[in-house]
Design goal:
The chain contains 21 helices and 14 strands. Strand 13 and strand 14 form a beta hairpin. The strands form three sheets. Strands 7-8-12-11-10-9-13-14 form an eight-stranded mixed sheet. The protein has about 575 residues and is α/β, with parallel strands linked by helices. Helix 5 packs parallel to helix 6 and helix 9 crosses helix 12. The structure holds FE2/S2 (inorganic) cluster and magnesium ion. One of its GO terms (molecular function) is dihydroxy-acid dehydratase activity. Its EC number is 4.2.1.9.
């Protein structure tokens, strides 16, 4: 891309004119203590920072933003950092997912409204990354992302922990009576030793890895630990690159986020056994650039992509070990025959230019394509009379013997019903039962919380049962596991067949055949649905109302319908 004249810069529309408006804009910057020299003929790089004391995963972002600024200044740009709302997976209620679209709107409108020539996105915790990508994609100003990196591995009684994965495991052991409350308290103090996002291939690491596969960050940066010196130097390099992007006017997100880039992202997702949440975020992101990505594309790519990363929850290691084995670049390099290697990235070069020098697979953390850890990808799509528009299962984290299963339903009306009755000694349930949770989807919950890993009844846990088939219109944490069918679409609250299931109905799951059927005659399903009374909306005002009125179903990514790119939409590049 050719260099622009300083007068071509977007920010020059604010700072260039020798009139009263230009005067007011320039005084606003000088009021912050900058000289005229700082804004004269110089690209302005906005740093969208999701730092917040409410988001432990992103708590080191002030330091990273400083390193980005250093890079911008070295390259002759003016860095201006701005806050956005931030989404912390652990603390936000009812669910960080309910606010992903709000954060995306904040990011989009901040970029659009201010005199910025290029953007550096700083995101880490689960929802911050897709929210920033979605907002930046819609604003379509040249953008590069710097992800926050995983926290250091935690240790408990000498054993390395996956923050999420092991929390679920030990919580079940506590309920099963095999560990004590004291043990569990000790785990609490050990679980999160440093800043950074979750340390296994949960949603955060999946999304940050996908950023590299999409070509939206500098190559080799996705897996660098949060507190590693190289993350700060990557931040500096990102700042330098942002200035080059500002000067050349690109690439813009719409240049990078092509169909090929999405294929590459999905291939990586499958190869690392990544989070099912990524399916939703990629469906939403694609629609921000006018690409109607379909759920079936995930299944097609999953079928042809072996799992070559041995990381939790699908494998054994943490992102720290993946980094030492060459990181996502090494995974991408091995995947080369399955990728669109020529896809353009924010470097202005191809994806393969970025991973060319990555190391070969070590055979332990990263395998070769010919000797993979699994022959197909981690996520499968099923559909049938219980999920006409599809549902997903993370088969790499499921019990192989349950991937084909027929059993009687035990239905819970919502999460409160589940909480009241799951450990009821009178609940008729065996290890062959299929647990069904409804009214937990995008509009029903609302916000589609991570309730999909339904708890196993204590009675079964004490008998040694650790997995049974579970079905819901909810999502599941990227660190969770089990034979859980998620994202059933359409959800119960908008009249999906999940609303028609009754206790004792037989449900057939056959992942190999991609089937999920309610074995009840279709006319009976329809009769029951016609009689069903939809639950009352949970919000009557404010953002919650906007959410339930406009959120799309899981198979479209749960974005707001009015945020998807319009077919005839022209980029709005003029500020006023
Ligand atoms: Fe923030 Fe897991 S809680 S990444
Ligand atoms: Mg998570």
């Amino acid at each position: 891309m050719s260099e622009q004249q300083p007068s071509d810069l977007r920010s020059a529309r604010w700072f260039g004119p020798h009139d009263l408006t230009g005067f007011i804009h320039r005084t606003a910057i000088q009021a912050e203590g900058f000289s005229k020299f700082a804004i004269k003929d110089r690209p302005v790089v906005g740093i969208a920072n999701s730092w917040s004391e409410l988001v432990n995963c992103n708590i080191h972002f002030k330091m990273l933003a400083d390193a980005v600024k250093r890079g911008v200044l070295m390259a002759g740009g003016l860095p201006l950092e701005f806050p956005t709302i931030s989404l912390g997976e652990s603390l936000m209620k009812p669910s960080a997912m309910q606010f992903r679209n709000l954060m995306a709107m904040d990011v989009e409108e901040s970029i659009r409204a201010y005199p910025l020539d290029a953007i550096v996105l700083l995101g880490g915790c689960d929802k911050t990354v897709p929210a920033q990508l979605m907002g930046a994609a819609s604003a379509d100003v040249p953008t590069i992302m710097l992800t926050g990196g995983p926290q250091e591995p935690a240790y408990f009684r000498g054993k390395q922990l996956g923050v999420g994965t092991d929390t679920w495991k030990y919580a079940d052991e506590l309920r099963a009576g095999t560990i004590t409350q004291d043990d569990f308290n000790e785990l609490e103090a050990s679980a999160k030793p440093t800043a950074g996002h979750c340390s296994e291939m949960g949603t955060a690491s999946t999304m940050t890895s996908i950023v590299e596969a999409l070509g939206m960050c500098l190559p080799g940066t996705a897996s660098i630990p949060a507190v590693h010196a190289r993350r700060a130097s990557a931040a500096e390099a990102t700042g330098r690159r942002a200035v080059e992007m500002a000067l050349s006017g690109g690439p813009r997100p719409s240049d990078v986020l092509t169909e090929q880039a999405f294929d590459n992202a999905i291939t990586l997702l499958m190869a690392v056994g990544g989070s099912t949440n990524a399916v939703i975020h990629l469906l939403a992101l694609a629609r921000r650039v006018g690409y109607e990505l379909q759920l079936d594309r995930f299944h097609e790519i999953s079928q042809r992509t072996p799992r070559i990363a041995n990381v939790r929850p699908s494998g054994e290691h943490l992102i720290a070990q993946l980094f030492n084995a060459g990181g996502i670049s090494a995974v991408l390099k091995e995947l080369d025959p399955l990728l669109h290697a020529g896809a353009i990235t924010v470097t202005g070069e191809s994806l393969s230019d970025g991973y060319r020098n990555a190391p070969a697979p070590d055979g332990d953390v990263i395998s070769t394509l010919s000797e993979p850890f699994d022959t197909s990808g981690g996520i499968a799509v099923v559909r049938g009379s219980l999920a006409p528009k599809g549902a997903v299962i993370k088969r790499s984290a499921a019990s192989p013997e349950l991937l084909k299963h027929r059993g009687p339903a035990v239905v819970f009306e919502d999460i409160y019903d589940l909480g009241r009755r799951i450990d009821d000694p009178d609940l008729e349930i065996t290890e062959d039962s299929v647990l069904v949770l409804r009214n937990s989807g995008p509009t029903g919950a609302p916000g589609m919380p991570e309730w999909g890993m339904l708890p196993i009844p204590e009675r079964l846990l004490r008998k040694g049962v650790r997995d049974i088939v579970r079905i819901s219109d909810a999502r599941m944490s990227g660190t969770a596991f089990g034979t859980t069918i998620l994202h059933v679409s359409p959800e119960a609250a908008v009249g999906g067949p999940l609303a028609a299931v009754r206790d004792g109905d037989h449900i057939l799951l056959d992942v190999q055949e991609q089937r999920l059927d309610l074995e009840v005659p279709q006319d009976e399903i329809e009769r029951r649905l016609a009689e069903a009374v939809p639950p009352a909306p949970k919000y009557r005002r404010g953002y919650g109302k906007l959410f339930v009125d406009h959120v799309t179903q899981a198979d479209e990514g749960c974005d707001f319908d009015f945020l998807q790119k319009l077919p005839d939409e022209e980029p709005q590049r003029l500020p006023h």
